[in-house]
Write a structure and sequence with these properties.
Layout: H1 16-31, H2 38-44, H3 49-55, H4 59-84, H5 89-107, H6 113-120, H7 127-149, H8 155-175, H9 181-193
Helix pairs in contact: 1-2, 4-5, 4-7, 5-7, 5-8, 5-9, 7-8, 8-9
Length: 196
């Protein structure tokens, strides 16, 4: 016999700050930064605008914090491949490519949050844009170091090529211009790594 009553949820609600960030992430990813107002974020987070401003001085501060969290996720991917393949920089590079390739289906609807956000943040002094630029610079430095450790020719040039391929694959997955983008991405990066 099936009970018609449901068990109460055992999962506690997130604290307000995390609910706000979760709501902002979902809305920014789906609709873009500029189209989403603070009221929409408050409604999605089941809170108030006043509560948002208690945690984030401005909407721009909320956007910057969201992008810091996204950037940290990408940095964790670097940390993970380094831990999984210690002393094997070629495998680390391929692990990063696999991370992007595996994520392509998920971004095919809306795209890379950095690529989309930077298009909405033309002012280079905007704190959120600075988060993106600093993240991309840090990511490139780490990739150059991996290329150097893998003894790939001209590590800076090789890292730039890999970056162009990773970024380009994300755009192609979003606009649907190239089929099998993940598999093609992996073949290209494998070719680059095999030069070492």
């Amino acid at each position: 016999m099936t009970s018609s009553t449901r068990r109460p949820s055992r999962v506690a609600k997130l604290p307000p700050r995390e609910r706000i960030l979760d709501a902002a992430e979902e809305l920014f990813q789906r609709e873009g930064i500029r189209r989403v107002g603070v009221q929409a974020i408050a409604e999605k987070a089941e809170t108030t605008k006043m509560a948002i401003y208690r945690h984030f001085e401005t909407k721009d501060a909320l956007v910057a914090e969201w992008l810091r969290i996204v950037a940290a996720d990408y940095q964790e991917a670097f940390d993970r491949v380094e831990a999984e393949h210690p002393g094997r920089p070629g495998e680390q590079i391929l692990g990063l490519a696999r991370f992007i390739a595996d994520g392509l289906p998920a971004i095919s609807h809306r795209g890379c949050p950095f690529i989309n956000s930077i298009a909405e943040l033309p002012d280079r002094s905007d704190p959120a844009r600075q988060v993106i630029e600093e993240h991309k610079a840090r990511q490139l430095r780490r990739l150059v170091a991996m290329c150097a450790e893998a003894r790939l020719p001209d590590p800076a040039q090789t890292a730039a090529e890999i970056t162009f391929v990773l970024e380009g694959a994300q755009v192609c997955a979003q606009n649907g211009s190239v089929d099998q983008a993940g598999e093609r991405l992996m073949r290209i990066v494998e070719g680059i790594v095999s030069r070492g």
